[in-house]
Amino acid sequence: MKIQHFKADQTKTITWASGTSTELFIYPSTGDFQKRDFLFRLSTATVEAEESVFSDFSGITRTLMLLKGNLTLIHEGRYTKELEPFDQDTFDGGWDTKSKGKVKDFNLMCKEGARGSLAHYNLQNNNEKTVQLMGNKNYIYCENGSFKIGNDLISSGELVALENEKEITLFSEENSDIIHVSLICS
Asked: Strand (E) positions, 39-186?
């Protein structure tokens, strides 16, 4: 099994109008978020304002999963969606979107040539879960707690990239919330 482990101190955090965004992974590695020069990007964000307006990410499909708090997503002229922890919404980054609520979220951004999905697993202390890896690129993020994949310990705020695997077993070291990102890239 080939695992690439990204520690929490390897992330890059930027400040935006309503909070912060922490880049966990960008592909390709030479990609630049500010220039919108990437195929896909994984990040977390903390929204510190009660109301915020989303930046224009035309040409990018966004999947947002709520990690903490409660959020109302308002896609103007389209629909409104209420999110609680681990609920998600996928939408066009070019839509006029606003939100209400101070939260922490997980973001998957995909440009043409990539499509992905998010899944949440809650593992209780000393339990395991076998996960089917469906995409050609798979990532596992530890939101809180810790777990093992083989002999590798993954702690809160850490990400692992998995290659050439069809399934893995996650073994919890403690109660843990885990996000699985599955991508198909052409």
From this structure: 40-47, 51-53, 60-68, 71-75, 79-83, 88-92, 97-100, 103-111, 114-123, 128-132, 137-144, 146-149, 152-155, 159-163, 167-172, 176-185
